[in-house]
Design a protein that fits this description.
The protein is 23% helix and 12% strand. The protein contains one helix and two strands. Strand 1 and strand 2 form a beta hairpin. It has a domain of 33 residues. With 81 residues, the protein is of the alpha+beta class.
Length: 81
């Protein structure tokens, strides 16, 4: 005689409702950051009818003017102030 295989029906596990609560956090402690020192004003300034140029050196001032005029050359087609 052949052996019969007995299969038991396995039930699915029941869903368990879980409730999680966050632990109470302590009050936030305000952090104070040190203030950055104020930068000194630029040493050199050139004022013209179109605006102002500022830099810390003569070479820097010339560079700022040159960059601005190149910007005009690129965008407007003329090397102007």
């Amino acid at each position: 005689m052949a052996k019969k295989t007995i299969r038991k029906r396995v039930s699915k596990p029941k869903k368990v409702e879980r409730k999680f609560e966050l632990a109470a956090l302590p009050d936030a402690i305000p952090i104070e950051f040190p203030k950055a020192p104020k930068e000194p004003p630029p040493m050199y300034r050139m004022t013209c009818w179109a605006g102002e140029y500022e830099a810390d050196s003569w070479i820097g001032l010339g560079w700022e003017i040159f960059k601005h005029r190149l910007w005009h050359l690129w965008n407007h087609g003329s090397f102007m102030d």
